[in-house]
Amino acid sequence: MSDTKKRFISFLRFTERYTKTDMVYLATSGFWVNVSSITITLFSLALYIVFARFLPKEVYGTYQYLLSLSAIIGTFTLSGMNTAVARAVARGHEGTYRASIAMQLKWALIPCIGALIGALYYAIQGNMLLAIGLFLIGVATPFVTAFNTYGAFLTGKKDFRRLFLYNFSLNVPYYGGLILAAFYFKSALVLLAVNLAVNAIVLALLYRQTLRTFKPNDEVDAETFSYGKHLSAMGIFSALIGQIDNVLVFHYLGAVDLAIYSLATAIPDRIAGFSRFFSLTSAPKFANKSEEEIRSSIGPKLLKLTFVALIGAFLYMFVAPFLFTFFFPQYVTSIPFSMLYAFGMVGTAGGVALSALSSQQRTKDLYVFNIVTPIIQLSLQLGGVLLYGLWGLVFGKTLSTLLTSLFSVFLLLRNRTSSSV
């Protein structure tokens, strides 16, 4: 080990007395997660520029609506299994990874059939755009929602470097394909087809590569499947509400306003993604700690994270007008909406709190969270769009993001007798 590296590690250990965090682990794991976030942000920026310059707003808005339909169909799969698998792998039960894929593929046949029935209905009604879109979504859903579990396996193994490399090998053809499709075809259906096809094929290849590289042991934690089903069930309502904003805008305001709204929220969401490494890298740590240990140390960390997020929100509000004017001149109307929406980044701490709740299998608290918060989100967003249009929706979603973050922290820190089953 070089002297420079030793001094850097010594410095990180010194800072731990103030941060109360394993800074060496955070620096090594967080580095790769942040590199991944930076890479995705750059890819996304290039994609947004192409969409803004080459796609008519109506096509972009329609594509976003089709993506929301895909996400809605995906909520009825075992979407919570990834969190459960990551926890099982972190505890040494690597065989759970392979076993979970078979279960997820079987379970995904249900929403797949539902999507195909919806496609048939819209075909009979003469709406071929939605009919073909739902058909493509139905065919791709089992593969897209099951094989992405390689990320959960690598997270459980704390191999964030390999996770970055695998994700990069997915993002190159994904973003490259979408950029070419937007440039040459300018069709929402073609964009959707490229999106689903690249994801399905590359994710399946990455799943097989993970098996070849790690050769997981045969230890299967049966409790993981029950927990994964719990997480999936409790997340359905919340995931549906997570897509309600796009559905509301498309149906009440139209595809053009959805394009304006999508670009206004896209950049803040990508920036907020940098904070994802806190919840991602902390999950394996939380899985091997007691509730008392977590509750006694996490409060100050959440406050510091919130303060950093607040600074980030104000910085974005300052640069947003220049960013849109330079990169997205066709969408300058999105600027004020994007500046308001940026306040939602302050709710970053909520992701870490949820990660702790999931890692500790606090199922009752998670059910409460996934029942109460969607009601808050639906009420604020529906009321906002009906009363004040796009302004009302953006304000409602921003406020609901902050309230749900506070609620997750409250559930984590509150005194309780028993919150798990």
Characterise this structure.
This protein has helices spanning 3-19, 23-54, 57-74, 81-90, 95-107, 109-125, 128-146, 150-156, 160-184, 188-214, 222-242, 244-252, 255-272, 276-287, 291-327, 335-341, 349-359, 363-413. The radius of gyration is 21 Å and the shape is globular. The chain starts with a helix and ends in an 8-residue tail after the last helix. The chain is mostly helical and 421 residues long.
Give me some keywords for this one.
mainly alpha, disordered C terminus, 0% strand, 421 residues
Radius of gyration: 21 Å
What is the residue-mean pLDDT, rounded to a whole number? 87
Beta strands, count: 0
Q: What is the rounded distance between the termini?
A: 46 Å
- Domain unit count: 2
What structural category arises from helix and sheet content?
mainly alpha
Q: What does the secondary structure layout of this molecule look like, with pairings?
A:
Blueprint lengths: L2 H17 L3 H32 L2 H18 L6 H10 L4 H13 L1 H17 L2 H19 L3 H7 L3 H25 L3 H27 L7 H21 L1 H9 L2 H18 L3 H12 L3 H37 L7 H7 L7 H11 L3 H51 L8
Helix pairs in contact: 2-9, 2-13, 2-14, 3-7, 3-10, 3-12, 3-13, 4-5, 4-8, 4-11, 5-7, 6-7, 7-10, 8-9, 9-10, 11-18, 12-13, 12-18, 13-16, 14-17, 15-16, 15-17, 16-18, 17-18
